[in-house]
Amino acid sequence: MSHGVEDGEVNMAAWLLGINNLKIQPFKLPPIGPHDVRVRVKAVGICGSDVHYLRTMGCAGYVAKEPLVIGHESAGIIEEVGSEVNHLVVGDKVALEPGVSCWHCNFCKEGRYNLCPDMKFFASAPFHGSLANQIVHPADLCFKLPDNVSLEEGAMCEPLSVAVHACRRANIGPETNVLIMGSGPIGLVTMLVARAFGAPKIVIVDVDDNRLSVAKKLCADEIVKVSTNIQDTAEEVVQINKAMGARVDVTFDCVGFNKTMSTALSATSAGGKVCLVGMGHNEMTIPITPVTAREIDIIGIFRYKNTWPLCLEFLRSGKIDVKPLITHRFGFSQKEVEEAFETSARGGNAIKVMFNL
Amino acid sequence: MGKGGMSHGVNEGEENMAAWLLGVNNLKIQPFKLPPIGPHDVRVRIKAVGICGSDVHYLKTMSCAGFIVKEPMVIGHECAGIIEETGSEVKHVVVGDRVALEPGISCWRCNLCKEGSYNLCPEMKFFATPPVHGSLANQVVHPADLCFKLPDNVSLEEGAMCEPLSVGVHACRRANIGPEKNVLIMGAGPIGLVTMLAARAFGAPRIVIVDVDDNRLSVAKKLGADEIVKVSINIQDTAEEVVQINKAMGTGVDVTFDCAGFNKTMSTALGATRAGGKVCLVGMGHSEMTVPLTPAAAREVDIIGIFRYKNTWPLCLEFLSSGKIDVKPLITHRFGFSQKEVEEAFETSAGGGNAIKVMFNL
Fold this sequence. Notes:
Two copies of one chain form a homodimer. Chain A is α/β, with parallel strands linked by helices. Chain A has helices spanning 48-56, 106-109, 151-169, 185-196, 209-218, 233-244, 258-267, 289-294, 308-317, 334-346; strands at 12-18, 21-26, 36-45, 58-59, 62-63, 68-69, 73-81, 93-96, 99-100, 120-121, 134-138, 142-144, 178-181, 202-206, 222-225, 250-253, 273-276, 284-287, 297-300, 326-330, 352-356. Chain A has ten helices and 21 strands. In chain A, the strands form five sheets. In chain A, strands 3, 7, 8, 11, 12, 20 and 21 form a seven-stranded mixed beta sheet that branches. A six-stranded parallel beta sheet of chain A has the order 15-14-13-16-17-19, with helices on both faces. The longest helix of chain A is centred in the middle third of the chain and has 19 residues, at 151-169. In chain A, 53% of the residues are buried.
């Protein structure tokens, strides 16, 4: 049952109906519980996982067996609050953390709620996403935007959170030199966050000149062009170490191929860490000697936990500027939704494709 | 240690002998000239030396883990002995002391050394890692600070066992083993077994160990494994074995030590470990592996590397002295220091099977 919907308004959403089949259709809202809010969604970014669902009806082991509302990087305006909600009021602009954990299991209670086996996450089958006019969501997962942070920047908190979680797990600070494999959306947010955490030197690599020049404009200290050829690994490791000119303490692999992991493991200094960020290839063939003979640890990253407040503070203070990452904007119509996904899927000079609703 | 020069303080008429690796499958007991004893060194009469898998690898291939033997080299690094001479600045040990030897001499000038990760020192000089000579010899000269006095109730053989035990201790520290960490161990060979003993000593409440070999599994059970699971070498069996392992554990696997180091053992380890847990790669496995890395990373299962050890001898000796760890059952075969016995000992060690630790008594 839809409660509190504007008179006569049918709530619409972008539904994934099948492979390459997105349709804007009605989306019935659930009732608002005492701890929930109803949000008018205003900005939604497209993620690589959304594109993957569109192309394959699956992502990272999840399979969409029924129609699913897509989208999870979102921000909007509170239009209704549940009876027990104290920290938000109607009219507040908020960024939304997508995942609803159970808060009963050990993972949740020990603070690693991102690993909750009963996680309900926007647009991770079978849970509906947020590319919709309105959604209902727990109030504690809605974070009020500072006055100088826009709704689009609010939506960017989601990919930014992946980077914040990665930088925390890898202990980035003023003494950790950082190497980043891949200058796509995830590599770029990781770079911005590493800088915000104080990384003194950042080298970023990619196969694409345009993406590298974006990285240089943003804040990379050095950029290195690499190939897709695994035979080039040894030589590229030399180039990378030269570009860094110092220890490589942490490498973020934001691509996830045999070659990028192999390069990462070989380029990282003894006692350092390689962090696998985002969704890479399932199975990889990697050199193990760096792990066993040089104590390189491989750290896994899955989504995030407790990152929204820090992201909003970084954006408010200007320590991080995500606006240059938003390269394409679309409205919420059938035609534009299709075009937006095409643009995002194409990659190239498209970094973050954003819907304005 | 390769400095050459005159032998000082050797018993009159005694020629110091050592087991030299001359080529593939070619070990010869030959004279070994000792370097002069510096002010911070001691001269040790070696009494017990264990054989390690790496020693066997050098014998069979003249190489190990990227190191290549280019010139004849004295083999052996797991050792203990008796102090026979001390340098002028040595205070904490005296002639007659029984000591266990930590093999590796770090530089103490680089950042890694100064930050306490001296096991990763790029200038490390380690017994029997080319080009540095090892310690399967009548006598060696060694820095005094790397010689640790044995408690009265710890034998020289147990002293020599401190070296492999140190690998287990370092792994348990890096993996943060404690009273709330349930442990899975891949492989019930010498390294798997010392890791199991160390994990128990660190308080691990439940330990499951797996192997392909029934005999090794029964040794593990006798030594204190809570559950043993027999596994195959077939990678297709991985999914089913992960189920069996989790059933045997009965609860989440917090830390898995892969003490075998194959595609299959790593894949099993990554699959069996709970979200947020750790897989620790211990000892020398294959240099390249094909593993399901992304699914593991997506469950925040971290992979921790282990290289040798640092600051482990005092704790090992305390574990042995208190009886918290008993390594004696791991010493399955003993040999003396003659040409024939050296050859036989290495054959026995290389043969695996029911040989866990092969020990020389000199």
